[in-house]
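Section 5.1 Outputs to date
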Amino acid sequence: MDIVIRPAAPSEYTALGEITAQAYLRDGLLDFGESDAYLSELRDVAKRAAAAEVLVAVADDRPLGGVTFVPSGGPMADIARPGEAEIRMLAVDHAARGRGAGEALVRACVERARATEGCTAVVLSTQRTMHTAHRIYERLGFVRTPERDWNPLPELDDITLLTYELTL
C-alpha cells in the first residue's frame, strides 16, 4: 500500500477530525474523555487549516491520519520560538497503525520545515504515554528538550507535556 502525504482537502476535514479525536480518546490521552474541552479542538480541522498547514496521509483514497504543521511563527504554535516550526496533533487511525503513516507525516513536516526560509528547528509537544510517537521522533533524530516541558493547563498540576526538537 502506497501512502501519499498531501495537504488535507476541505472535503476530508470531518473524517480527519474524527480520526484525530478517536485516536486521542482510544489512547486515553484526554483526561476528561468525551467531555474534554480539547476534543472539539481536535475535531476542528477547518480551524487548524485556516491558521496552519494540515497534512493528511492517504492510501487507496482513504485518509489514514493527519498532522498540523505550523511554520515559523504561526498562530497555532504552542512552544515554537522564532525560526522554529512546530508539529501538532499527529494522529493515525487505529486500523491503519503500523503501516508507516505516522512516520511519513512527521517526515513531511521536517521536509516542509527545511524548505521554510530561516527555519532552523522543528519542535513538538507530546504526552508521556505516547511511546510509539516518541520512538518515531527519536528514530528521525529528534531529541528530548526537558527544559522546555510545559503544562497546558496550569490549574491541573499533573499534566506535563514532554518536548522534542530536531535541529535542521
